[in-house]
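Sequence in, structure out.
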Amino acid sequence: MLHLIISVKVYEIISDADQVRRSRQFPFRFLSAYKELQSVPSATSKVFDALETALDVSVENIPRIAGKTAIVVDVSGSMKSAVSQKSKMTCAEIGLLLGVIATRVCEESIFLSFDTQLYRPTVSARGGVVTQVRNIPVQGGSTHMELPFNHLTKENINVDRIIVFSDNQCNSPYSKGTIQKYADAYRKSVNPSCWVHGVDLQGYSTQQFTGGKTNLISGWSEKIFEFITLAESGLETLVGRVESIYF
């Protein structure tokens, strides 16, 4: 009976919106807990429902991003590596988590993933974050980052920005160059004002993009979404935000 009472209390705390907001836990912590509990035989739907609710609440206050966004997540073989030495979470899981969160905060979005092939998982802004992350396949394979850019160009899909979550360990046929030429081709053919935000999840210093309307982010947290909006607003806005925090 005591075990039952404690369990119910824990469920209530985890799924209580006010408690989650006060805890200031990062969204990936709830995904990490979800992953760990999947191997626990006694874990029931209640704890998974509570964690799903907690993660949903934890992303409520992330600033919204206006316009149409292409969200691109690398699910290649190298993304199966741990995101850090102290974590059991993989780069792919973090990339997909950030990608699904982006679907929540973007006004309108297209979700693409890629390895050797291009995929278009069905991701809804109204769906559960954890469930959607866990349901997107990570099969591995080569890192063909040109595929989403070629797709957007070929289909003439006009977006305001392209956000790429990757470790940037790209493969041939472009091993002697970067993906920038594919971003240039998209801008030339579809939208010259499109922003490209490259998020390097491992910080290998192998970023694929350069030039105007390009925002490079090394590392990750839910704060990157605010940084994306600030970068698009201009350097003065970005500097002003930093000064408001530290000065």
